[in-house]
Amino acid sequence: MLVWIVFAAVLFLVLLFRISYLFQDVRHILVKLYTSRFVLKYIQTNYFIQDRFSDLVQLQPHKPFLLFRDETFTYRDADELSNKAARAFLQGGLKQGDTAALFLGNEPMFVWLWLGLMKIGCSAAFLNYNIRSRGLLHCFSCSGAKTLVAAEELQDAVEEVLPSLLEEQVKVFILADQCRSADVQSFKDKMSQASSDPISKDFKSHLTLRSPAVYIYTSGTTGLPKAAVVPHSKLWALSKFPSVAGLKSTDVMYDSLPLYHSAGFIGITSTIDRGSTVALRNKFSASQFWDDCRKYNVTVIQYIGEIMRYICSTPKKHNDRSHNVRLAIGNGLRADVWREFINRFGNITVREFYGASEGNFSLINYSNKIGAIGRDTFLHKVQRFFPYALIKFDVDAGKPLRDSAGFCIEADKGEPGLLVCKITATTPFAGYARDLQQTEKKKLHNVLKKGDLYFNSGDLMTVDDDNFIYFQDRVGDTFRWKGENVATTEVADALTLLDCIKEANVYGVEVPGQEGRAGMAAVTLREGQSFDSAVAFKHVEKFLPAYARPRFVRIQSSLDVTGTLKYMKTKLVKEGFDPNQVTDPLYFLDDRAKDYVPLTLDIFSSVTSGKIKI
Domain AMP-dependent synthetase/ligase spans what residues (predicted)? Predict the structure, then answer.
């Protein structure tokens, strides 16, 4: 009898465990149906994010919209300042349908400029403030913008490319009281003189929800960033995502992510969607993170994996749990850091998600399963939110495996598979601005049946026996470091500009305790040349943002290539930067010495143990 009682109890617990997931699955689908209904309604009625903002200005004019440092901007304040920005743009020659590029960091002005552009029916290109010279010109050009507005502290970067911009008849504005060049105008001056009166809705009369709203840049295999086209409909879908995760109108969201990233920008648009409040920080600071949360009475935080790791690396304090944060929304969180975070800072609900600026697919872990990014459920597929699949992928060949009929093969449970999502009217792929070649590269034809078309995420996933989905790795020539995508071709192109380097094969290597992969370059030297480490350091410092600079360099006599002359990386990645495995000369980027120094066993040990921070 006792055996049967134990058996019944175990069976009950198993069923309860399974049913709890079912309840969560059903609830999540209902929430998605509810939010999707709003997006569909907005598309049908041509209702924009800007319209929602205008309605909120009428409904709650005195409610705090944005908190920054010691300033509070209400919804009415934001409305009036963005009206000024809109009129300044019009006075500067911008017309309906034009695009303006914004080149500045996290500050309220970023939001006023974007809102101002929305009000006059224009789109915005968000330039990464880390890029310089050739990369800056490329990003600006592919957006099609004819106006550039830059922060005062970025004047040097603008002046470096100013002759090229003027040659293309670009209007350049600086957010400064005075400009150093006669060819540059003060946008601050124009705003101060502009009226804050409401802007006519007629300026948006030419737009639909499928018109481009913003251009957000993502690295790829071309060597230079690509401008992902984000239509107004996609902007709505992105903005609704935090609502699905649990964001409420009464929340204060802490946003320390770069606004030029979709992750940071969603913090602003989702605040407008919910009519809540956002606390904006100019740059993430691990030491100030919780002080800020207490100062602004933050209830929801945004993160990427690196941020959480940095927070957990700070010295423990007696008030670690003295805060009102109840929800964390983000991506890239390692399972071990996830556990440490909630154990140390309290039982905060973590909503890990997966998505891409240009993608037509997203996932969210609504079950609090540590390490997962979502669930692969029959309800998801029945509702056909995202007709996705995980297909077998040949990492060495760099392409999906196909059967004798030419169709892709779906991966088994527990087996890594390439995530692809069918391109349909409800799951469109807008592609990259002025880059048809790269847009087509992201499409897969005849995936599961003849004539179908899928978006290639470039990411490998696995599904476990409980149907939880886990991120495995990125494929192709892009890896992630310090929360940024690094294009290996771009880094290789920069390295081969050095007189001493003939060829460069760039890849990412794992570093214990670090998120993503650190950059490493295997290079060959030109005949008669030696590796000039100090010059190499100055070169990468000038031409590459900090996150893209190779942390390790390996000098080889020749680079291995495939039959189609593609660099072979699998073995190099496996060997990494371990002097015990690599007999070639190795160098380490030493920021303090401002040099690439020989990578000794002591340095290797210090890096892998975390004694040397990179």
Answer: 57-369
pLDDT tens readout for residues 437-496: 999 999 999 999 999 999 999 998 999 999 999 998 778 777 889 888 787 878 988 898
Whether 548 is covered by a domain: the verdict is yes
Could you tell me the CA-to-CA distances from 198 to 57, 84, 189, 202, 504 in Å, in that order?
Answer: 11, 9, 20, 12, 55
Spatial separation of the C-alpha atoms in residues 470 and 480, rounded to whole Å: 17
First to last CA, the chain: 62
In a domain, 324, yes or no: no
Domain that holds residue 581: 478-609
> Is residue 295 left, alpha or beta, with left meaning phi > 0 and alpha meaning psi from -120 to 50?
alpha
Sheet (strand 185-186) strand order: 185-186, 171-175, 147-151, 99-103, 123-126, 212-218, 226-231
Mean pLDDT of 418-434: 94
Tokens describing residue 29: 């689908």
d(CA 114, CA 104): 12
Domain assignment present for 362 = no
Q: Identify the CATH number of the domain in which residue 449 sits.
A: 2.30.38.10
Task: Output DSSP code: residue 321.
Answer: T
CB 330 within 8 A of CB 304: yes
| Domain end point (choices 426, 449, 471) | 471
Say if 341 falls within a structural domain: no
What is the CATH classification number for the domain harbouring 108?
3.40.50.12780
Residue with tokens 């920008």: 265
CB-based contacts of 223, cutoff 8 Å, min separation 6: 487, 488, 489, 490, 492, 493
Identify whether the C-beta of residue 150 lies closer than 8 Å to the C-beta of residue 170.
no
Closest CA to 332 of 482, 555, 117, 520: 482
pTM summary value: 0.86
Which of 130, 175, 124, 163 shows the shortest CA–CA distance to 145?
124
